[in-house]
Amino acid sequence: MEEKRFTGACPANLKAVKITGDFWSRFQELVRTQVIPYQWEALNDRIEGAAPSYCMENFKIASGQKAGDFGGCVFQDSDFAKWIEAVGYSLSIHPDAELEKTADEAIDLVCSAQQPDGYLDTYYIINGLQERFTNLAHNHELYCLGHMIEGAVAYYQATGKDKLLNAVRRYADLVNNTFGTGQGKIPGYPGHEIIEMALVRLYDITGEEKYIKLAKYFIDQRGQEPNYFRQEIQSSGKPWGWAKSPFGLQYYQAGKPVREQTAAEGHAVRAVYLYSGMADVARKTNDQSLWNACKTLWNNIVQKRMYITGSIGSTHYGESFTFDYDLPNDSVYGETCAAIGLVFFARRMLEMEVKGEYADVMEQALYNGVISGMSLDGKSFFYVNPLEVIPEASEKDHDRSHVKVQRQKWFGCACCPPNLARLVSSLGTYMYGTGSLEGRDVLYHHLFATGQADFVLDGKSIEIQTETRYPWDGTLKTAFTIPNGEAAFAYSVRIPGWCEHYSLTMNGASAEYQLKDGYAVLNRTFQDGDVVVLQMEMTARLISASPEVRDDFGKVCVCRGPVVYCLEQEDNGNKLHKVRLSGNVSFRENWEDMLDGIVALECEGASVGEAEQTDGKLYRRYTPPVYRPKALRWIPYYAWANRSAGEMAVWVRIQD
After folding, report:
1. Strand 627-636 versus strand 531-536 pairing type
2. pLDDT of 374-394, one tens digit each?
3. Bridge partners of 492?
4. Residue 611's pLDDT is what?
5. β-strand 486-494 against 440-445: which pairing, if any?
6. Helices 336-352 and 268-285, interaxial angle, to 10°?
7. Comparing C-alpha atoms, which of 426, 346, 316 is closest to residue 24?
8. What is the pLDDT of residues 445-476, one digit of tens each?
9. Are 464 and 528 contacting, i.e. CB atoms less than 8 angstroms apart?
10. pLDDT digits (tens, 9 = 90+) for 600-622
């Protein structure tokens, strides 16, 4: 395989990064002590009042340990796969003998269901192996394998144990021998993507080129004519749910070859999983045309189809993208998994080329549209992440019934909770990267948290220690420990796109640096004990959307640093649609211990009083509404719905 020519950032080794700061370490500890054990109970159907999972039950049936029928969604195996991946990441940063023992026993059960030829999917093992690989568009076999590969690699990297890794290699080998354009092979590809980026990880861990070639095949074959999915659907003789939809085969991103796709279309999670795999394959194979397609699709998402929270997917119909600038707040889908997938895509774009815009979006999604999907106690979850909520609408309007006012204990389709757990547990690989710049090693600092990390730069072991109260405070202090005394490398720290004013010092004096693509680059010989301080001015600010976004026209939202804020009924009463802000509003910032510690914002606004409705008429001759002063209190969006059920709004009306 030809060496790559892209000059992006290689992610940090997870075991080399330790996050200790209050914000992200609390989330990681929550995942380790609450979420992973809770999800294990859920996978075993032991959560009272929660929808049953059937996941581990299916493996018992498939392995012959008990009799029964398949239960749950066709992709139920993937819930275990994501759980074991989260376990692997958690063990990498926090060894836990009891958790490892539980995981080993679970792996024993899963592997006992594997068939002699390597096949491992409980839906078809239980329901009939003769039907396997006959419904690729809908039945998720390759999706489940992709997640199982991701989990197996993570667990192997954490523990050195290869039982699950060997099992998925056998299954991947079966798939490799089954699919392709050669004689006797199936010229198909997955309906729900993820195996593409998973195969790249399998290639990285094994060095076997057949896996990267299989990933490239799945990407290159997708959408080619004759279209495999069209033939598969026609031959089945069964009704096709998307036949009369606006999506058609683009629901699966399979209506045309990937290099011809210029807009993010169809199911949002499938889309960003595909784009992540495309970026991986482009990087590994030096495929410039595939990289160009990634950039085109990235720009379409972040410039025309992404919410301010980093959520994507505008409609519950197909959990999908719709059209440019269609970003409704109260009927949004904004699946937690979709925001997570966007983070995957963003990091892979950084691996291709280091630009601040990719890390900005990664940060935007993480602090808002991702962690909003989990309650602060780690025991309930949002599948859908709305930007405006009216409880009565969720209860009585079918078109908004998917929008929940409170997080749920579990879901029959439980993709989001374990997905969130695996991302939070692996966050260290998103914070830093290494690469080469102007002939020197470079350390990229993408995301900010208190902690330490170890790297080899200029052939020498280097430890960095970071102190910060981010996202509540804009000071980032990074100290370098270099046992050999000095090392020549570049330290490249991101200047967030939200930051308008900042200063950078080196050992207390103004630092010399070059601003390059959103990063401040200090290219020098560093000495043991050097300290770099980035001071970012962090104040509340008003953000407006493009005037093309109909739902946000004439409105603003409030942000501070990377955090999006919202109004909640708990603090401001109901009828939030009547609230108005002045363009010159000023905010008071208060640190509060509630909601696990936040910076709350207060300001003076206005609202139409109830007295204006006393005549009881539904319609009347227009007269200007009378606004009365109203004190407003804002909390971080990710923390909403952790106290009581009620209205919520991110966007409010503005009057300059």
Report:
1. unpaired
2. 999 998 999 899 999 999 999
3. 444, 521
4. 58
5. parallel
6. 20
7. 426
8. 999 999 999 999 999 999 999 999 999 999 99
9. no
10. 999 999 999 765 556 778 898 88
What is the reported pLDDT for 152?
98
Q: In which residue are the tokens 């085109």 written?
A: 296
- From the candidates 196, 319, 388, 568, which is the catalytic residue? 319
pLDDT band for position 4 (cuts 50, 70, 90): very low
pLDDT bucket at 48, cuts 50 / 70 / 90: confident
Contact assessment for residue 646 and residue 574, using Cβ atoms and an 8 Å cutoff: yes
Q: If pLDDT is split at 50, 70 and 90, which confidence band does 169 have?
A: very high
What is the three-state SS of 114-145? CCCCCCCCHHHHHHCHHHCCCCCCCCCHHHHH
Spatial CA neighbour of 42 closest among 52, 32, 34: 52
Q: Round to whole Å and give the CA distance between 305 and 327.
A: 7
Mean pLDDT of 136-140: 95
Residue 440's contacts (CB-CB under 8 Å, 6 or more residues apart) are: 458, 488, 489, 490, 523
β-strand partners of 461: 456
Helix ranges restricted to H, 160-267: 163-178, 195-206, 209-221, 228-236
| Cβ(415)–Cβ(421) below 8 Å | no
Contact call for residues 507 and 522 (beta carbons, < 8 A): no
319 is catalytic: yes
Q: Whose CA is closest to 211, among 185, 166, 182, 172?
A: 172
Q: For residue range 572-599, what is the model confidence (pLDDT) as tens digits?
A: 999 999 999 998 999 999 999 999 999 9
* 3-state SS class at 646: coil
C-alpha closest to that of 654 among 575, 561, 545, 537: 545
**Residue 59, CB half-sphere, CA atoms under 13 Å: how many?**
23
| Cα(21)–Cα(15) distance, integer angstroms | 17
| Cα 252 from Cα 266, distance rounded (Å) | 6
Contact 27, 424 (CB under 8 A): yes
Cis peptide before 471 (omega within 30 of 0): yes
What is the pLDDT, as a whole number, of residue 383?
87
CB 227 within 8 A of CB 254: yes
CB atoms within 10 A of CB 436: 13
Place of tokens 């523990």: 159
Is the pLDDT at 413 greater than 90? The verdict is: no
Catalytic residue, chosen from 415, 557, 559, 566, is 415
Distance between CA atoms of 303 and 545, rounded to whole angstroms? Answer: 10
Establish how many alpha carbons lie within 13 A of residue 495's alpha carbon, considering only the half-sphere containing its beta carbon.
20
Closest CA to 491 of 468, 467, 459, 458: 458
DSSP H helical segments within 442-497, as ranges? none
Q: Are strands 579-582 and 519-527 parallel, antiparallel or unpaired?
A: unpaired
Q: Is 559 a catalytic residue?
A: no
Both tokens of 71, joined, read: 């239960």
How many Å apart are CA 619 and CA 612, to the nearest integer? Answer: 12
Residue 301 contacts residue 264 (beta carbons within 8 Å): yes
Cβ-Cβ contacts under 8 Å for 419 (sequence gap 6 or more): 82, 336, 337, 340
CA distance 328 to 47: 34
Note the helical H segments in 305-383: 336-352, 356-364
Predicted confidence (pLDDT) at residue 371 exceeds the cutoff of 80: yes
Pair 387, 339: CB distance under 8 Å: no
With 60 as the cut, is the pLDDT of residue 2 above it?
A: no
DSSP state of 488: E
C-alpha span between 304 and 175 (Å, rounded): 37
